[in-house]
Design brief:
Number of domains of chain B: 1
Strand order of the largest sheet of chain B: 1-4-5-3-2
Shape of chain A: globular
Shape of chain B: globular
CATH architecture of one domain in chain A: Alpha-Beta Complex
Strand order of the largest sheet of chain A: 1-2-3-4-5-6-7
Largest sheet of chain A: 7 strands, mixed
Number of strands of chain B: 5
Number of helices of chain B: 2
Oligomer: heterodimer
CATH class of one domain in chain A: Alpha Beta
Chain lengths: 288, 109
């Protein structure tokens, strides 16, 4: 083993991986030590009433962990989606937990308690078994983010390895700031859906390096669609959150700058297959 | 999906549980275990995605809870296709977090 490899191995073993943590532990480690208090926790047994009827085992917290605590002394609520349960899909209960917590955070702000939110996305989007109820919940999450971000930053994180897709990718795009790792993926449609619609010649969902080159965290950061490309390390992600929080509420959110993105996309030549570099160049015209 | 339920006698002399604990997630090949204090006995309620495994669950629960001197508790298991070994590990993790692992016959897996 060369010294270089040894150094990298030591660095790797010294990392406190965020990706490897389950949702509850991610929340606990993001907040100040010992400050976290879980709301509507698993022992409340507010699990999905719809999954069991369709023969699917439920999780006691419906795959969403709501933790109230402090971040560097400031009031903060962390909403973490458990990607291992049903692909992190959002149903009626999990969606309501996120939307309700965001609405309460906005209320706290209006009552003079500055409260920020961190959303840890690990989700394929709406839970198909709960269809319209899940979609309605996601719409409530969208409006709750837009409301809260007027008062305090709403910071989104996608660490991986599930990524963030569907209606929740829209929620991701509404966040004040966004952090990804290299393992993360962010996109409206999942790879399999695009392959089905566009054909395997254009989009091969099983080609991992191709998929990550188009929707992966690094590509999204270089395209200006997210703010930070972070290492998979709890402390580093925490310090990125602190830096973004210090910037305060953005003068103009990314989602308010759609006109420039749309005109850049309109001018793009759709006849040729876009390479990752071309995609970056197109989005660069939209991003500030 | 199948729902199973098992009851075991609690040890009268055991110190009652003071808190509750959750371990695991309902992910592929994994399970979640919720343990709470209860009044009288050890009641285990299992919801598993795999049908027809009742005899294996029965044997595993008997081995873990049959001989141990444990306090009364309510245990809920939501299983998503975990192997018996994984189930055993999750149960031991829960007992360890409750400070009960010393009373567990951990040598007989």
């Amino acid at each position: 083993m060369t010294t270089n490899q040894e150094t990298r191995l030591t660095a790797l073993l010294g990392q406190n991986s965020f990706i490897e943590l389950a949702a509850r532990e991610r929340s606990r480690q993001l907040l100040d030590a010992g400050s976290g208090r879980e709301l509507v926790g698993p022992f409340e047994r507010l699990s999905s009433p719809w999954l069991a009827q369709q023969g699917v085992v439920t999780q006691a917290d419906d795959g969403v962990v709501v933790t109230k605590g402090s971040f560097n002394g400031q009031s903060c609520v962390v909403l973490a989606i458990e990607g291992a349960f049903q692909g992190g899909s959002l149903g009626e209960v999990g969606g309501a937990k996120i939307a309700g917590a965001l609405e309460l955070a906005a209320l706290d702000n209006r009552n003079g308690i500055p409260t920020m939110a961190i959303i840890v996305f690990e989700t394929g989007g709406v839970r198909l078994q709960e269809a319209n109820l899940g979609l309605a919940a996601i719409a409530e999450i969208h409006s709750a983010i837009v409301d809260l971000r007027r008062c305090q930053p709403v910071i989104g994180i996608v660490a991986g390895t599930v990524g963030c897709f569907g209606g929740m990718s829209i929620a991701a795009a509404l966040c004040s700031y966004f952090i990804v790792t290299r393992e993360a993926r962010l996109g409206l449609n999942g790879p399999a859906v695009i392959e089905q619609e566009a054909g395997i010649a254009e989009y091969d969902s099983r080609d991992r390096s191709f998929i990550w080159s188009i929707t992966g965290g690094e590509q999204r950061a270089l395209s200006g669609l997210v703010d930070v490309l972070a290492e998979d390390d709890v402390q580093q992600i925490r310090s990125h959150v602190a830096q973004l929080l210090a910037r305060g509420v953005p003068r103009m959110h990314r989602s308010e700058q759609t006109a420039r993105f749309i005109s850049a996309l309109d001018a793009a030549d759709a006849a040729t297959q876009a390479t990752p570099g071309m995609a970056r160049a197109i989005y660069a015209q939209g991003a500030q | 999906m199948e729902n199973l339920s098992y009851d075991f006698a609690a040890a009268p002399a055991a110190v009652p549980l003071q808190r509750r604990v959750l371990v695991g997630v309902v992910g592929s090949g994994d399970l979640e275990v919720l343990v709470e204090p209860a009044a009288a006995q050890i009641r285990i309620q299992i919801c598993t995605s795999v049908d027809g495994m009742a005899s294996i669950w029965q044997a595993l629960m008997q081995r873990v809870f049959g001989a141990a001197a444990l306090p009364a508790m309510r245990i809920d298991i939501n299983d998503f296709g975990a192997t018996p070994g994984v189930v055993r590990l999750r149960l031991e993790q829960a007992m360890e977090e409750l400070g009960l692992s010393d009373q567990q016959p951990v040598d007989k897996i």
